[in-house]
Structures are given as C-alpha cells and as structure tokens.
Amino acid sequence: MGRPGVAGKPGVAGRPGVSGNGAPGHSAPSTGAPGRAGTGRPRPGGAPSGPQRPNPQRPAGPPGPPRPPAVLRLGNPARRLRAALVVMAIVLSLFAGRLVQLQGFDSKVLQAKAAQQRVQPETLPARRGSITDAGGHDLAVTVEAREVYVDPKDVDPAKRDLVATTLARELNKPKEEIAAALAKTEQRYIPLARDVEPPRAKRIMGFELKGVGVKETYRRLYPGNSLAGGLLGFVGVDGRGLEGLESAYDDILAGKDGKQSIELGANRQRIPMTRSQREAPVPGRDVRLTIDRDIQWAAEESLARQVRQTGARSGSVIVMDVRTGQILAMANAPQANLNSWQSAPAEDRANRAASEIFEPGSTNKVITAAAAMEAGVVDPDTAFRVPDHIQCADRQLRDSHPHAPELLTFTGILAESSNVGTIMVADKISSQRLYDMFRSFGFGARSGAGIPGEQAGLLPQWQTWSGSQRCTIAYGQGISVTALQMAGVYQTIANGGVRVTPSIVAGTTDAHGAFVPSPAAKGTRVISETTARRIALMLEAAVGHEGTGEEASIEGYRVAGKTGTAMRYDEKCAGYCGYTATFVGFTPADQPRLMALAVIQDPKKGHYGGAIAAPVFKDVMTFALKSRKIPPTGTKAPEMLLRPAE
C-alpha cells in the first residue's frame, strides 16, 4: 500500500499539513499527470508555466526513513569454480614440468654443479729436494712455511679496517694493499703472503679474524745466502727452478705434487662424514755437488775483496781436482743473495765462470806451445832472438813493454810472456795444426759439465783467419773462451795430457734416499805425457823470480802457472775497453792435485794478470791445500834455462 500523507500518487496518502507544492496552507493544481501532484509554478502576470524544475531546496519537515541498500547480484558459482580449477591445473602443470626437467633431464648436470660447488680441490705441494756440497752440507734446503690468504666475502664489512690493519702489521705489507684485496668481495681466495714462518702464521690465526686463513706450504732457503749463488740459481714463487742448477735439475728436485678433494659447506668448513680423495705428494730427490763449501767460501771472499780493491767490474774463480775433473769451487763477484734474488741485477745472478766469454790473452800461449812441441819443431831449450815488435801482415804487433832484441829459450818466451816470441814459435806450424790443438783442448765447444748457461766461446775456422789474426790468436787475442774452458786447459796439462770432462754434480739420491753417484768423468788424451811434463816445468819457471807470475808462489809448494793480460772487448763501447787480468795454475807442480784460475774483468787500479789475478790464486790455493790436507812434495824445481849464452 502507499505511504500515508503523500498527495498525487494513487493509493499513497500525503504528508499531514503539506500541500502538493510543499507550501503550507496552499494546494497546487495538477499539471496533467494522472494521480500525481503538479510541480509547476505560475509565471508572473498569470500566464501558466510548463513543467517546472524541482525546487532544489529540501522541503522543511522531518527526514524520511533511509533507503534500503543496493543488492549485489552474484554470478554463477559453478562457472567460477570451473575457472579456478583450470587456473590451478595450469599452475600445477608448470610445477610438474619444471620438476620433470630438474629431476629427469637436468639431474646429472645439476648434480655435477652442486658437487663442484661443494667439492674443493687442493694441491698438496711436494717437499723440494736439497742441494748439498760434497760433504752433505746444505746449500739449498726446503723448510715448512705458511701461505696467508683471505676470503673477502667472508670478512665482516664493519671489521675490514681492523683486519687490514692487523694483517699489514703482521705481514709487513702496506695497509692499502691489504684493504684493496679485502674490497674484492666477488673473490673467495686471495693469497696475501707466501713463505710466512709457521710461528708468525700461528700468531695471525690467534687473532681469530673471520675470513683469514693459512695454508701449509714450503719455502726455499739458502743457508749461505750468496754462497755459490750464480751456480745454484733460485726458484720462483711457484717453487719451480728458474735459473742455475735449480732449473737444470728441477725434474729431480721438484718431486710431484699431490692432490686432495674435500666437500665444504656454505661456511667453507668441511662437511663431516663426506667423501674425500687424496693423492699423497712425492718428495723431490737431493742433488749432491762436487763443491767443497769451505773452499767455495774462501774463493768468494778473496775474489770479492780483490774486485772491490781494484775497482773491477766483476771476477770469477774456479778450483778443480786435477785427477777427477771435479769442480771444488766456482765463485763469482759480485753475486746475488739467493734469499732475496729479486732485488739483484740480472748480471749478478749469472754464473760468469761458465757464461761470460773473454779473450784469454797469454794464458792461451800454452796451447801454442803444446801444438809446436807435439809437432816436434821446438823444445823447451830452443833459442829465439826476440825483438819487441814484429810485422804480421798489415799490422805491427808488440810485446807488453819495449826492449832490445834478446836471446830467449822457448821456456824464457813462456816465462816472460813474450807475444813476439810466441808468434815466432807459431810460425813454425800450420794454422790448421794450431786450430786442431785448440779444438782438442775444448775451445769452441761446451765442456760437457752440464752447467746451466755455459757458453761455447768463439773459435773462428782456421780458413777464415786473416794474416794478422793468425798471429794474435797464437797469444790469445782474436778468440774468446770461458773461465771453465781455460781451467780445463790447465787441468789437462796438470793431468799428464789427459783431459777429464769437468763435473759439478757428484750424484743424486734415489726414491728411497740412497745416494747414487754420477758416472765417472770421461778422460781423453790431448797431448803426450812428455809434452805435458815439459810444459809444466816451463810454467814453474813462469812463477819463478824471473817470471811474470811470481805473486802466485806459495811457500813450500811447487807452483806452475801462467799470467794473462788481454784487452777486453765491450759491447757497450763497441770496441776494446779495459783489460781482462788472469792467472791460472796448479800445485804441487811435480805431482799435481789442484788447479785454480782467477779472472778479474776491467780492473781500474792496475791491469796486469801477475799483479791483479795472481794474488787471488795464491790466497785460494793456499786455503784449498790446507783444507784438503795436501802436503808439499818436498822436492825442488829444476833450474830452467831462460836465456842461453850468446
């Protein structure tokens, strides 16, 4: 039914006291809509109006009751359920497909990646073998060490400064360098220092710095610092030999590194009860040298002192056992400290005794003497009238000092080291015979000692010799040799004419640590024993009071030897600059046991071999004789004729 009190609507009562237009006490005529009260208002002047807009003002009176809320009509629930099921089916099918892919098709690949992330391969370094002298004293030894590393990702960012400060102090490194390593958070392993002593590494780990760890390793140590430095060489940061015997015998010394694989968790700690694989390292074998540590030390001391006192550029000394060819000392000066070899110039790390070539000068005259005596054209007493100069092709060659023509025996020529006299002797033999004698003594080829860096020297073919070169080669200019080659010449003469291949390695140890000696050196006859003995007597005269090598004489011992003074070719000045001073000899001269050679390169205070190199020979040989307990023979040298009667 209609609402009471509302006019104009059929069956609906109008509001009490309110007319159809809402004005109290008035009624409005209908506008024509049946059953609905008119809302129009008459225009002024009585003209009727059309339909009027409702009055926007709310009619006075109490508000009516609230309208009922709008009703939301819901869709079909069955259709919504079907749509939800379809969506769920699609999502589940995607999950199922991914699971099939991961567990079926890609399972092995993912397992391998997971294992790769968990399994940490690690190299187990092998202990490098030792290098010892002939008596078993360590010259190069391997000791335990630690490698300190960081895992930047595992370091607490708030403590990076503390970690950098602590490690910089303990490792003696710049803090900036440590901080830069810690900033590389994308890396998990950065070595900071190798060759750290175990006590220091233990102290570092005592700080309990997260992300800092140590790894067991080894370091190479040279107890003698620079002792035999040029001969021994050194190893790199990876423990492999880089130069010298360390490089040449690396396969024997290095051993074989082992391997280990363990499974690590997210915190980089080993997962207990997981599988691990381990291949034990094989330690390296030892190498024993023929070097005598004490003689080596004496040679280096005397040589270094003379190089300093004469302002020389460098020097070398070799001491050899005459009978066996074993090298007892091979010294160089200046020489690098092997425990800090990186700071030394490259030339100080070289073994000059085997690698540096030079013109031998008058020490070479014994080869000319041997060739002439083997040819039978001269003997020690053959006399020559020797001027102080001689014309040789287009050059005039002279003795070291001017003198009037003098009558000298061949012994006198050698003792006084006359260049002109030696040329006169060489004129009695062919160039080919002289060349062949050079080759027989080992010139122009490596010695066969197996010493790293050894050079073959320079010996031109005899067919290429110029007129003047044939003369200069006879007294040691125009060819180049190493100290080792020249030492071999005098070892041959001292050994009765038999050349023994020099040796530096006495032997090695086998896999069980037993010593295995090197094969005995091969001996080759170069000249007859008679010629060798005659030359030895002539060389004794050279060390006598009338010879050039008097400074090499040793009280109580018979010494045979020869001085050498040669102009020195230098690539820096592209010509001859300075001199090479040499002395080489052996003792006891009548029963030779030891030979020694001293070479001083480019001395600034003097340059003659008798004054510069002979004193070094004397110091080293005197020490070696005492060290080896070699007594004097007790015999006296026979008188040798230097100047025959007119």
UniProtKB/TrEMBL annotation:
Region (Disordered): 1-73
Segments forming domain Penicillin-binding protein dimerisation: 124-267
Biased composition annotated in UniProt, kind: Low complexity: 27-50
Keyword hit for Membrane: yes
Keyword vocabulary terms for this entry: Membrane
Localization (cell): Membrane
Residue stretches of biased makeup (Pro residues): 51-69
Span of the signal peptide: none
Domain Penicillin-binding protein transpeptidase: 315-621
UniProt record similarity statement: Belongs to the transpeptidase family.
Protein name in the entry: Penicillin-binding transpeptidase domain-containing protein
